[in-house]
Amino acid sequence: MVLLGQGSDGTIEGTIKDPTGAVIPGATMTIRNLDTNVPRTAITDSNGHFDVPALSAGNYEVNAEHEGFQTESQRGIVLSVSQQEVINFTLAVGAATQVVEVSTLGSIINTTDNAIGGLVGEHAIADLPLNGRNYVDLALMQPGTDQDYAVGGTGGAGASSFSTHGNTPWSNLFTLDGAILNNALQLNSASQTGSTLGLDGIQEFKIVGLPDASYGLVMGGQVVMASKGGTNQYHGNLFEYFRNAALDARNYFDLGYLSGGRRIPNFVRNQFGGTFGGPIKKDKTFFWGVFESLRSATGASVLDNVPAVGCHGAAGQTVWNGSGTQPAGSVGPCPALPSNTVIAPQIAPLLALYPLPNVGSGQFTFPASSYVTEYFGQMRVDHSISDKDSLFVRYTVDTGDISNNAAYPQYLQTLPGTNQFLTVGETHIFSPAVLK
User: Fold this and answer.
1) Which residue of 15, 173, 242, 340 is 20 to 30 Å from 51, comparing CA positions?
2) pLDDT, greater one: 273 or 197
3) Would the pLDDT of 193 be above 50?
4) pLDDT recorded at residue 218
């Protein structure tokens, strides 16, 4: 059990001044999440500065008010994962009942840290095409990332592995809501089947190529993800993605005798699921659930080197290698062994396990298949206990297995695997400057 974690929440900070440029201490700041209507408050310090950390990614409105000044409201603030957004105010002199509304798109240039990387936002996750709906592939679009083509396959080695700014692929860290997701190979967060499901359970994620000391744990890049939570509106979706080899063109090298008489190797893939979320109690408690399943059958043509027909014999028989006249009672021709080699009783059953060659004199081919079955589920619940306490609980489970013919048709290899993650986060505000 791993209990180490780090936050993926953002921060809104800024400075409040009057028209002369003097700072305004004691101003009341209200930061409201427009998706859930949950507010946070802060008071500016003696330098007119406010800092509100531990904010989930989303759309925000910030209000500043102080006696003797007009109240100012800034809307259109989109806070992304691990972002530090700076929002400054200049309050005009007047009655506090007068409200000045300002629309903003937030800072275009990052002025709060020196992190090099990029953000994969909610619209990119939802709209960009992804082969297999593997969200890790979106990391390859970010600056400083380079795909590692030397790693592939399944058993946790699937999906995309990449290097960030010259570091090894094993140096990256994947976190969701601060909890580590790296698989046993430390390459990415792929499951046993080589997939990274749960695309609809991710709000957004950020690739930090050269992280500062606030991230830690690894020397490579950080993939900081935030899970999606519910809002005051009920919404969801259903989906299915289907692929079938019957709709594909034949590869030049797809020969019928190599694919069991088929025009091309078999390939069927179904990926389906749905999401649903909304309020349990409006403005207080919210939920978001995700279910996704993957089922696929992939054909492949396997070509094995096997003993020649003449190498199969019973215990005690001698082997003829094909030179000269064949001795009576011997088996052959078997060029791989010297003549007069006696088949030992321990070896005869093993030779019988090898299929007879069907391509040339020493090769065997058969149409193999690889079957994948995977189920993914995730549920997140957020609750605003009070104006000083908030809580979220997220449970993620991903179970699946891949089975295939390893090298010969009589041997079936099955690789099962289950990943489970339980993350609980509670934030208590001791003061506008201290929280835990």
Assistant:
1) 173
2) 273
3) yes
4) 81
CB 195 within 8 A of CB 176: no
**What pLDDT was estimated at residue 404?**
80
pLDDT in tens, 352-361: 888 888 887 8
Residues 6+ apart with CB under 8 A from 86: 13, 14, 107, 111, 112
User: pLDDT tens for residues 81-126?
Assistant: 888 899 999 999 887 665 666 665 555 455 555 556 678 888 888 8
- The residues spanned by each domain of the chain are 10-103, 117-303+368-435
Say if domain 10-103 classifies as CATH 2.40.100.10.
Answer: no
Separation of alpha carbons 57 and 239, rounded Å: 25
- Give residue 155's pLDDT: 53
**71-82: pLDDT as tens digits:** 999 988 999 888
Which is more confident, 243 or 260? 243
Q: What is the 3-state secondary structure (H, E, C) of the chain?
A: CCCCECCCCEEEEEEEECCCCCECCCCEEEEEECCCCEEEEEECCCCCEEEEEEECCEEEEEEEECCCECEEEEEEEEECCCCEEECCEECCECCCCCEEEEECCCCCCCCCCCCCEEEECHHHHHHCCCHHHCHHHHHHHCCCEEECCCCCCCCCCCCCCEEECCCCHHHCEEEECCEECCCCCCCCCCCCCCCCCCHHHEEEEEEECCCCCCCCCCCCCEEEEEECCCCCCCEEEEEEEEEEHHHCCCCCCCCHHHCCCCCCCCEEEEEEEEEEEEEEECCCEEEEEEEEEEEEEEEEEEEEECCCHHHCCCCCCEECCCCCCCCCCCECCCCCCCCCEECCCCCHHHHHHCCCCCECCCEEEEEEEEEEEEEEEEEEEEEECCCCEEEEEEEEEEEEEEEEECCCCCCEEEEEEEEEEEEEEEEEEEECCEEC
**Residue with token string 């090769």:** 363
For position 428, what pLDDT does the model report? Answer: 84
**Is residue 47 pLDDT above 90, yes or no?**
yes
